[in-house]
Specification:
By secondary structure, the protein is of the alpha+beta class. It has one domain: 2-Layer Sandwich (Alpha-D-Glucose-1,6-Bisphosphate, Chain A, domain 4), CATH 3.30.530.20. Helix content is 27%, strand content 37%. It has a seven-stranded antiparallel β-sheet. A hairpin with a 3-residue loop joins strand 4 (58-67) and strand 5 (71-77). The longest helix is centred in the last third of the chain and has 27 residues, at 112-138. The radius of gyration is 15 Å and the shape is globular.
């Protein structure tokens, strides 16, 4: 049985602004993929993300579905294996100018190594959501000099 998790946060900005901060590689690289993002998250694209300034940890992201201002889903590898998981961002308008962001990752196997990787990724996505909120609301990069 595969496992799944979902994290969420509220960002005090309109959906279009929050969605763009995830889709646009220049913005994403300013608070999350600090080693760079090779291209925008567009349906059918394969984008490379790096999470370290030295670009030593690169991850291919295969974008499966993009619905502007509503959803982005992609697949990527886990734990150095050929196995992939699916990540889905959902953007929901809350009130006049806020956005609820839900990030889910599914498809984890139940081996001890995969379970540990899923816990690590769950923490990582929560950190990403906090970094997204700080960047979009205040222009702050929480990851700067953290790694």
């Amino acid at each position: 049985m595969a496992s799944r998790f979902t994290i969420r946060t509220r960002v005090a900005r309109p959906v279009s602004e929050v969605f763009d901060a995830v889709r646009d590689p220049r913005k994403l690289s300013r608070y999350f993929t600090v080693g760079g993002a090779s291209a925008p998250l567009t349906e059918g694209a394969v984008v490379t993300w790096s999470f370290r300034e030295d670009s030593s940890h690169r991850f291919p992201v295969r974008v499966r579905r993009v619905i502007p201002n509503r959803r982005i889903s992609f697949e990527w590898g886990t734990n150095g294996t050929r196995h992939t998981t699916r990540v889905e961002f959902r953007f929901v308008r809350v009130g006049r100018s806020a956005t609820l962001v839900r990030i889910s990752e599914s498809g984890w196997k139940t081996t001890p190594a995969e379970r540990k990787s899923s816990y690590d990724n769950c923490a990582g996505w929560m950190q990403m959501a906090c970094c997204l909120k700080a960047f979009v609301e205040y222009g702050i990069n929480l990851r700067k000099d953290a790694y």
